[in-house]
Amino acid sequence: MENDEIEPNPPLKLPKLRNGLTFSFSDYDPDGKPQWLIHDAGRNKFFVIGWMEYEILIRWTLEEPQKIIDAILSETTLHVEMADIKHIAQFLIHNYLVQQSGYQIYKHAKSQKLFKDENILHWLVTYYLFFKIPLWHPNKFLSHTKQIGNLMFNKYVGYLMLALAFVAVYQIGLQWEEFTHTFSTIFTWTGLFFYFIAFSVCKFFHELGHAYMCKRYGIPVPTFGVAFLVFWPVLFTDTTLSWVLNSKQRMRIALAGIWMETYVTILAALVWCNTADTTIRSIAYVVITINWISSLLINVSPFMRFDGYYVLADFLKIPNLQARAFALTKWQIRRWLFDWPDPPPEHFSRRTHTILVIYSIATWLYRLVLYIGIAVLVYHFFIKILGIILFIVELFYFIFSPILTELIVWIKSRDRFSLNKRTIVTLIVFSMLLVISFLPIKTTVRLPATMSYSHQFLIAPAEGVMTSNLPKPGIRVKANQPIVTIVSADLDYTLKQIQMEYKKTLSELRRATIDPKYSSQQSALLSNITKQSSENHRYLELKNRLTLTVPFNGVVADIQPDLYMGAIVKKDEWIGDVVDPSVTVVEAFVTQADISKVKIGLIGHFYRGDLSEDGIKVKVKSIENLNANQLSCAYSSGIKGEGGEEAAVETPCYHSSEFGGSIATYQAPDGSLVPVDSVYRILLTTMVPVKLQHIERGSVFLRINSNSYVYRLFYAIKKILVEESGF
């Protein structure tokens, strides 16, 4: 039997292309090279390829790589190698563009981890930022109403709308004052309702603009729906098939939405200027202002995948702009830091390279600020716990996860690093940043403070009549000596009524203990007696406080000149001020972040308001354990005077921002001033004699061991999670 001759190296057979693939010329890239499109009609996907790839694929039916190479070398000026054929084959297999058996498809999909199981939490974290829901297939409707779209984008209609825009601007200028004052009415429930209506209508016309421009170029529109950006709904139109057009035509499609929305805005402006109906004017006003401006800010921005992004991609002639720009920027960062030896993922001109790097960094920063801003908005105005969760997810998604991924790449590629100049500089800078981040550094803190003699204001605890002569300024008084006496007829009457009710209830209780007929009332009567006794004690204490005293030996510093014996004083009215010149007290407030570093005995300096004079040496004498939940006007100093009595200090809200102080406060319903952030009160004494004419506001500078930046970061996170969440 005669053996068949067998080739020692049979030629490699290439897989056949799938049916349904079409090739069409697309455009020229930034370097002037032609580009073609592969349209996979079955999956409605497009792939951009270059000149060499196109020449290879149109000869793919030759099946053998060497035959394709020989044909290209003889018919074109291109230089093609076997590696190029293998690269194209891998591209086709990876994107399922060749004929494969079911097992081959399964095996390849498994190698790409397309069958990876996802739990619901991972799915939510991955997809809550942006997902789409199709609602309508508008292609038939658009085909029937195509002439409307053609009319809207007619150049003569454009000229007419431009003329109307000038008319609208002129008319608004005549009513400018009314136009600007209308803005405040939007922030009502009615205004928000009108905003929702106007927003929905305008966005519908915006998407119709995209759709009609597609039909103008003969491109079908398969889907119209709603997308959610961090749960915020935005309408979308599927214009994927527009890839068969050139870049200028695609730019017109991307801009058609803003084009149509601008027309609506011009008409709304004319309606607002020439209509008296309040409801119609309100809707028109929303369209002119908030809706159109927000549409420009969102849709023109190239940092999200909206209209501005696609316009920029087509202008630069770089399909899949973000993915390619991000990959290039990551390579550039590695190059800057380590003089990365690998070639860039793609070669661009110097100008385009710079633009892509700047664009990537700007996009990362923009998205970080945008998503965190949305989380903060949700936290403050909607659900606090949801805002906290969004904040944590976005920190992980935009900061920690990308950094961790990049660090893993560096670690895996460490054997390819060389000890060059850039690597040394990077290691030094990174080490310094690490040390600065974790090292506690001794620092000086500036605390809002007041300096005064130990003193106490004489304040009327209730409305009444002065029944004593007022002391003159300069008169010395002793501790607990009556200084001013007030009589309140209302208080005396209330106290008398309470005492009469108490006696009556006590009599009824005696009767109930004797007569079984009333024994069932004992429990209620006992409760009333307890309540009346408590009220009697409270009002007696208030009556005793109508005799004004101070807990120290001092001098009357000031008296209200309009008061006299027999004059009526109101509740909380200031009557005078008594000081103890033997004790100078400095009162300061420290934040929660620094309170743990302030110790009794710590030395600092007090500087008067403008810091123009030398500092006065002071020592920390006492620290409050609880934060000051309000800036009260009366405190106990904890500092002993000459007679051993406790000195008092009152600085009535000098530190509040309401009175020019540096502590941000808000007014509570009871009138007290509550600090926005937690602050702690500390008292200091001067270490040198000081003469004062009045209370002096200034600052205390203390040298303390500050926490590291990492500690502060975790402290801030703890504050958000534990304190602000209300758990």
Descriptive key words:
single chain, 727 residues, alpha+beta, 5 domains, 20 helices, elongated, disordered N terminus
Q: What is the helix fraction of residues, given as a range?
A: 40-55%
**Which sequence of strands runs across the widest sheet?**
7-14-21-16-15-22
* Distance linking N and C termini: 91 Å
Mean pLDDT: 80
Can you give me a brief rundown of this structure?
This protein has about 725 residues and is α+β, with helices and mostly antiparallel strands.
Q: Layout of SSEs?
A:
Layout: E1 21-28, E2 34-40, E3 45-50, H1 51-57, H2 65-75, H3 82-94, H4 102-111, H5 120-127, E4 130-136, H6 139-144, H7 146-152, H8 155-174, H9 176-181, H10 189-216, E5 224-229, E6 232-237, H11 247-274, H12 278-299, H13 307-316, H14 321-338, H15 350-381, H16 384-412, H17 421-438, E7 442-459, E8 464-466, E9 476-477, E10 484-487, H18 489-514, H19 522-544, E11 547-548, E12 554-559, E13 568-569, E14 574-591, E15 603-608, E16 616-623, E17 635-640, E18 646-649, E19 665-667, E20 673-675, E21 679-686, E22 696-705, H20 709-724
Antiparallel strand pairs: 1-2, 2-3, 4-5, 5-6, 7-14, 7-22, 8-10, 8-13, 9-12, 10-11, 12-14, 14-21, 15-16, 15-22, 16-21, 17-18, 19-20
Could you characterize what this model shows?
This protein has 727 residues and is an alpha+beta fold. It is 46% helix and 20% strand. It has five domains: 21-111, no CATH class; 121-306, no CATH class; 318-418, no CATH class; 448-455 and 576-706, no CATH class; 490-545. The strands form six sheets. The protein has a six-stranded antiparallel beta barrel with strand order 7-14-21-16-15-22. A four-stranded antiparallel beta sheet has the order 11-10-8-13. Helix 7 (146-152) crosses helix 10 (189-216), helix 14 (321-338) crosses helix 15 (350-381) and helix 15 (350-381) runs antiparallel to helix 16. The longest helix is centred in the middle third of the chain and has 32 residues, at 350-381.
